[in-house]
Amino acid sequence: MNDEILSQNEIDALLSAISTGEMSAEDLKKDESERRVKVYDFKRALRFSKDQIRNLTRIYDNYARLLTTYFSSQLRTYINISVASVDQIPYEEYIRSVPHMTILNVIEIPPLEGRMIMEVHPNLGYTMLDRILGGKGTNYNKIDNLTEIEMKLMKNLFDRTLDYLQEAWSSLIEIDPILLEIEVNPQFLHVVSPNETVVVISMNATVGETSGMINICIPHVLLEPVIPKLSAHYWMEDMDKVINPEEAVLLEKKIKEAKLEIIAELGSSNISVADFLSLSLGDVIELNANINAPMVVKIGNKPKFLGQAGTKNKRMAVQILEEIKEGNEEDGW
User: What are the Flagellar motor switch protein FliN-like C-terminal domain coordinates in residue numbering (predicted)?
Assistant: First the structure.
């Protein structure tokens, strides 16, 4: 039971109401009893835990960022997409909320069985279409069905979003998304049974001056095989997993091939701005280093070795004399 702590003013107000007869002790007990009762609708049984919803939200936060970049390059206008909410509701309730003459992308994501829906609000869909056809992206209401040419253009636009969907899901499972069809009437869609629980990820989207929603509807039956992977325990294990030997060899090879900037520092000097501005060819700047002292060799602007200048094969060179070790390196950190 959650105990609610009252402030002193609230306590004084309650005592005053009881003493004046405005509220009796029985009324207070009755009110407290009623607050403890929570209505539970078995038709809307929650089948995902908070951790699973939270991790699913992470996946689609990443997907929203990828979509923002993709649509910005394709439509060449201001785009902003972000996750607004993630809810689990019966499929029947979701499909009733979908407006008519909207853009409904039906997607399969093998190896998972089932289909998911990517619903794009009509205002957004038709604004995108106007931008593709060279318009300014002015919001307008289209009341008839999409023509074959318009349907092909929309399919091409959203077909390429599947690569980003695959990338967003890669932390959970490797999928191969397929855009099956684009529908405009929600009544023709029968993805799952009406009482089946679905997760609806709602994303706020802005295309130019037009705003609307992009909703992703994922049935529970589709996510069922990967539900254990959505738990916080799995994600913590995934973070701690050991790299296999082949990955370790490849990683070591890539690191060895990486190029680093090496700087052999002869010395340094401080001069005034006036002296710097009056420098000309043939002038000599006195450095603070002794000619017989070793040079500091820097890797990535960090002192790493001591060396001495010389030549090799008639080219200037630096011979490494010793390594500059810091305290934590000597301790084996």
Answer: 254-324
Select the CATH number that applies to the domain covering 256-330 from these four: 2.60.260.20, 3.30.1330.10, 2.30.330.10, 3.90.950.10. 2.30.330.10
Secondary structure E strands in the chain: 79-90, 103-108, 115-120, 178-183, 197-207, 210-219, 262-265, 295-299, 302-312, 315-323
Could you report the per-residue pLDDT of 164-187, keeping only the tens digit for each?
999 888 888 898 999 988 888 887
User: Going by C-beta distance under 8 Å and a sequence separation of 6 or more, which residues neighbour residue 47?
Assistant: 88, 197, 220
- Pairwise CA distance, residues 296 & 308, whole Å: 9
CATH of domain 50-239: 3.40.1550.10
CA angle 59, 61, 67 (to 5 degrees): 105
Q: b/e for 194-206, b at 16 or more Cβ within 10 A?
A: eebbbbbbbbebb
- Quote the CA–CA distance of 315 and 80 in Å, as a whole number: 55
For residue range 275-321, list pLDDT tens digits in order: 888 888 888 888 888 878 888 888 877 888 888 888 888 888 888 88
Burial of 51 (0-12, 13-18, 19+ CB in 10 A): middle
Strands 79-90 and 295-299: unpaired
Work out the angle between the directed axes of helices 25-36 and 8-20 (0-180°, nearest 10). 130
Give the residue with greater pLDDT, 187 vs 57.
Answer: 57
Nearest one of 177, 188, 186, 120 to 154, comparing CA atoms: 120
- What pLDDT, on the 0 to 100 scale, is given for residue 14? 67
Instruction: Specify the pTM.
Output: 0.56
Which residues, in sequence order, are bridge partners of residue 148?
A: none
